[in-house]
Amino acid sequence: MSLIACRRCPELRAYCARVAKEKRRAYLDWTYWGKPVPAFGDPHARVLLVGLAPGAHGSNRTGRMFTGDASGEWLFRALFRAGFANRAEAVQRDDGLVLDDALITAAIRCAPPQNKPTPAQIKRCASYLDADVQALERLRVVVGLGAIGTRAAFDALVRGGFAFAARPVFAHGAEAAASEIGGAGRSVVLIASYHPSRQNTNTGKLSEPMLDRIFARARAIVGAPVARQG
């Protein structure tokens, strides 16, 4: 089953469809996406970002991860400053935004009520995150945005054959290294970050310099952008 056609969580599909029909007053002229939101970015990325879930009037409206809400405004500014994005704004799917060496995904792909997915919903959606991890052959860094995103990233790496010395404790800027068991013997660094939600940015829990340090660290690990042919 394709991601967009997924109906593993009928309660979430119903919620997303209802939000898309009712809309928010500021977006009455929009045709909401109203479906599961696919990962967005560079398919050859060395850096993977794992968020919580699409926002009801953000990604559930635009159909692109972290696009159309305040969290995305903070995130894409930081990615632009670190050289992972060609522009600092994300408005809609065809706005010209391109990510370089970074891919954005989430623990679940449908917007949940109050941004609070249940453990069962996260479990049912896990295979899509697993597929993102497995598809990135050059993966070096995984940034977990928020406690749920970080936990989902850790679990996906473990399911994907990476071994950690210990389960990391969530804290902004905390790192944990993992080594691939067998295979190519790759190593990956998991970096935890506070989520750039209004709950964190409006209260001062997360500042732009704090978020910049996360992506500066990711850039330091992977090095300069890689020139590609074609």
Could you give a short description of this structure?
Helix content is 34%, strand content 14%.
Low-confidence stretches: none
Radius of gyration: 17 Å
Summed over residues and divided by their number, the pLDDT gives a mean of 95
Corresponding CATH architecture? 3-Layer(aba) Sandwich
Number of strands: 7
Residue share in helix: 25-40%
What is the CATH domain class?
Alpha Beta
What is the global morphology? globular
Percent strand: 5-15%
Secondary-structure element order, N to C: HEEHHEHEHEEEHH
Major β-sheet annotation: 7 strands, mixed
Give the count of structural domains: 1
How far do the termini sit from each other?
Answer: 31 Å
Strand arrangement across the biggest beta sheet? 1-3-2-4-7-6-5
User: What is the helix tally?
Assistant: 7
Question: Which tags fit this structure?
Answer:
single chain, 230 residues, 7-stranded mixed beta sheet, 7 strands, Uracil-DNA Glycosylase, subunit E, globular, alpha/beta
Report on this model:
It is a single chain. With 230 residues, this protein is α/β, with parallel strands linked by helices. The chain has one domain: Uracil-DNA glycosylase-like domain (Uracil-DNA Glycosylase, subunit E, 3-Layer(aba) Sandwich), CATH 3.40.470. The chain has seven helices and seven strands; from the N terminus they run H-E-E-H-H-E-H-E-H-E-E-E-H-H. The protein has helices spanning 10-22, 59-62, 70-81, 119-135, 146-159, 198-201, 208-222; strands at 40-41, 47-51, 102-106, 141-145, 162-164, 175-180, 187-193. It has a seven-stranded mixed sheet with strand order 1-3-2-4-7-6-5, sandwiched between helices. A hairpin with a 6-residue loop joins strand 6 (175-180) and strand 7 (187-193). Helix 3 packs across helix 7 and helix 4 crosses helix 5 (146-159). It is globular and about 50 Å long. The chain starts with 9 loop residues before the first helix and ends in an 8-residue tail after the last helix. 46% of the residues are buried. The mean pLDDT is 95.
